[in-house]
Amino acid sequence: MLPLAQQNDGFLHVVFAISASHLSYDDQQSHIVALSHYGVALRAVKYLITEYGSGYQHNPVVIVMLLLALCNFETETQTAQ
Prior knowledge:
84% of the residues lie in helices and 0% in strands. By secondary structure, it is mostly helical. Pfam families: Fungal_trans_2 (PF11951).
């Protein structure tokens, strides 16, 4: 995961969001940070999908991995509540 996070800002923010969500069990501020990074990652994946649909040659595997990581975040935050 970390090599991909070094190459893609959106994936980096998903890693940050997942990390902060683990800390948010004890700290409300970490939950706010997690949601902030999650929002940045959502915008990044929207941008990648829009560019891919317009014909730019983005690696679709990166987009799928980013979407799976976002699903992971959603699953973790729902089970924490």
